[in-house]
Design a protein that fits this description.
The chain is of the alpha+beta class and about 220 residues long. The longest helix is centred in the N-terminal third of the chain and has 28 residues. Helix content is about 15%, strand content about 40%. It is rod-shaped and about 120 Å long. A hairpin with an 8-residue loop joins strand 5 and strand 6. Strands 3, 4, 5, 6, 7, 8, 9, 10, 11, 12 and 13 form an eleven-stranded antiparallel sheet that branches. It has a two-stranded antiparallel sheet with strand order 1-2. It has two domains: about 45 residues, no CATH class; about 140 residues, Sandwich (Jelly Rolls), CATH 2.60.120.
Amino acid sequence: MNPQQFTQEAPSKRKLAATTAIALAGAGLLLVTIVLPAEYGVDPLHAGAALGLTAMSAPVTAKAVEVPAGAMLDKPVQEGPIAHYSGAYKVDSAVFKLGPYEYLEYKYRLEKDASMMFSWTATGAVTHDFHGDPGSGKGAEQSYDKKDRQASSGTLVAPFAGMHGWFWENPSGETITITLNSSGFYSSAMESRSDRTRRAHELTSVKPTADTGKNESK
């Protein structure tokens, strides 16, 4: 055989230029139609949207937890260890004077699973019952802490919807002053005394401002 039969001619510069141009055009087409839409969300030819590639570059956002609004504004919606409330966070401070052998009840309205923090002190030991009343009739009250005390601090997660609070009675012949501070997701407060008088207390709502994120009280 003649070795010259296997000798191939080198491609001409013109053919090389044409091949290179075709390769560059193909790479550019892939860049514009696939890479840019999928990786960066850039879709000048709208081919990425047609192929469903632009969704790959969209940021992943967490689904917002919708807190229902309605009559029971302070009922929490549980999300793992976090409870979300649509109602305002409230604070309350009250001072009560009990004459000799007088008593009073002071309760907050909480929905089931709503939380409250509290701290109270008295100038003398008082007969005390921290309890809840679902309002379903006599005998339905549930006692949480029933003993003579002069002070108490803690938290409550309401086991049912209803009125939750304290019965205090002065067992002595001297006037006793009780000072209470509380905060939580309650909606109202009522004071009932041994002389059969009842008085609703005004509560302070704490809401974050929309522009700064700081809290403001109303």
